[in-house]
Amino acid sequence: MKIAHDNAERHVLTVTVDNEPGILAKITGLFTARGYNIDSLTVADISDDHAISRITIVTGGPPQVIDQIEAQLDRLVPVHGVVDLTTAGPHVERELALIKVTGTGEARVEALRVADIFRASVVDTTTESFVFELTGAPDKIDSFIALMRELGLVEVGRSGIVGMLRGAEGS
Amino acid sequence: MQTAPEPSKTEKEEHVSDHPHPDHLKTDQQSGAAILTQCLVDQGVEFVFGYPGGAVLPIYDELFGDERLRHILVRHEAGAAHAAEGYARATGKPGVVLVTSGPGATNAVTGIADAYMDSIPMVVITGQVPTALIGTDAFQEADTVGITRHCTKHNYLVKDPAELQFVLEEAFRIATTGRPGPVVVDIPKDVQIAVPSRRVAATLTASHRYAPQMAAPAEQVIEAVEMIAAAERPIFYTGGGVINSGPEATRLLRQLQDITGAPVTSTLMGLGAFPSEHPDWLGMLGMHGTYEANLAMNKADVMVCIGARFDDRVTGRLDAFSPDSKKIHIDIDRSSINKTVPVELGIVGDCSTVLSQMIESWGARKPQDLGEWKARIAGWRARECLAYPEKSAKDLSAIMPQKAVERLHALTHKREPIITTEVGQHQMWAAQYFGFEQPNKWLTSGGLGTMGYGMPAAIGAQLGCPDALVIDIAGEASIQMNIQELGTASQYRLPVKIFILNNEYMGMVRQWQELTYESRYSNSYSDSLPDFVKLAEAYGWTGIRITEESELDAGIEAMLAADGPVIVDCMVAKDANCLPMIPSGAAHTEMLLYGDAHEGTMDDEAKALV
Predict the structure, then answer these.
(1) Which residue among A1, A29, A71 places its CB closest to the CB of B150?
(2) pLDDT single digits (tens) B313-329
(3) I want to staple B510 with a disulfide (CB 3.0 to 4.6 A). Which of A60, B207, B393, B505 is the partner?
């Protein structure tokens, strides 16, 4: 017999939670225990008193699995709310990346030129290296990294996605 | 002592006696342990099922001489958790467990996971090593919060006695409301001894974060009622949620059935919500359910699932599960809806509340004429799927286990006994042949399927219902898994009865080996069994052995006549199997019945299913 695999579609979920010990383990553990995927996960507290955190999770799965993920997250006691940005409407997704590139001569100049096209900023430099900071949609960062690979890419750090619905309404 | 002091290197946990006895501290500054016991009293707790150890000594000292709480000393922490479950299911009140750190907590985990799967309200207090030692691999340290994270509804590590009152109040609220479940409160030893570092309002504002939806939106209720009213072949499929919702839900279910006329089947966990004597009762459904229940599920046009969760033991093969029905699912847990079976109408709400909304919305309607539907059901009923062979093929004089359960029912049902079970064939026979008329009389491990559940659960039930007849229908293999609890029943003079259907096999394992592995009985024979009669007597119980069918009634009567606890070792046919059965990977229409050949093997897809 063969092990079956489901077709996955990508969804971005935002989860607001009480900022209490173990909440991240609870959420990531739920994903592993029930066999859901995490493509990226970001978390930081978002309230003045540090009591509330917002977690953005990029996951994948067929629609009924995504619905289950939402329902399972929602029933955790410290979870206040779950929004599936992918189905909730038009939204923006942004990610920050730090990208270290080394090189001299033409490759170095080219790296800087490409960075300018992508509106990446230089946050550190030596005579033979740059650290670029780039913010944007994940595919823009993917493209930039692909180009840098040919120009002396040394190290990549990515924040994972933060997302928000467009328009005046809070989610 | 304040929380989280830097302990001197020489400070060991035995040094509790260096601290003043809490009784000498009766100021308004109470220790964590004193706050804990006060909270338990305030919550109306009668019994604490527990076992002492190093990391809970301050709490045990607080319990010493406190007559407001009765501590039940078990013989193993698994027994404490199952006893608390039994108490909770028999009384509807939360069970409370108190165990020490490390092995105390890990031993309780099976019972916690069991309560989680079966939605049993339970609050488990675990001791933990002192705050400063957490994470150092200290003696008897285990990451209890980490270990129980995914088998509890919620859990806490309390780091300051100031939080205790709030945490315990919330723990009880979470355990008992919404979909009930176990909540673990892990309390480091120093937090038990220290006084609060600050004043904290008893009720922090956090109620916003836990508010189960009880009532359904009106339009959903109307839609459900219209679907039922238009149905030609309706069926109610009810589960443990009806029982968890309280006696009112049972009453309302019977009322809704009365006005709609729909036939009723139930999961293992839901038995007793609908009376087994009722003409519209179909029996249990699922893997070992009745022919009529499973066929009616398969042919229904409207299915109303009330507080059940489409478990794999119920549905059989999913793509063949009730293919022509529109499904309504009422459940307090949104994640149960559309989890495995997509439904046309999912209603999030409490069974009792939603049932009363539906009855009100139904008003004075008349149901469709269900005569044709009931006639079809009568046809399936005529198959008499529970009619087992009168004699064992291999041993003509052996007692058929089904017969033993039938006689047990016949001789005890007037006393409305509470029945607990272990897990296996005997459990299914009990579900099939022991009719239940009322809720909270049937305590079994359904979701997790924990062997060793029955005796401690019977102990908990007997404490909660001191006047009830409590019988654990057991197997000779399961009963050994928590056999040590015989001593608990002796100590507290609990007259529980254990009725062992002894076939010298882990019968359900043997049955599956016959079905799937060409009768290669790999390790399913119960070798080196104890003499259960002598074992009973060793613990001060009465022991009775039944070997002949002619002794069956007299043996049961003798069990009932004994004032104290009794083990009945009822020797039954070794080769009897539990049928009807939907084999793994099969549909409701593909049941094996008595008389069908069922030995052999299966393909890998079927073997891979549980």
Answers:
(1) A29
(2) 999 999 999 999 999 99
(3) B505
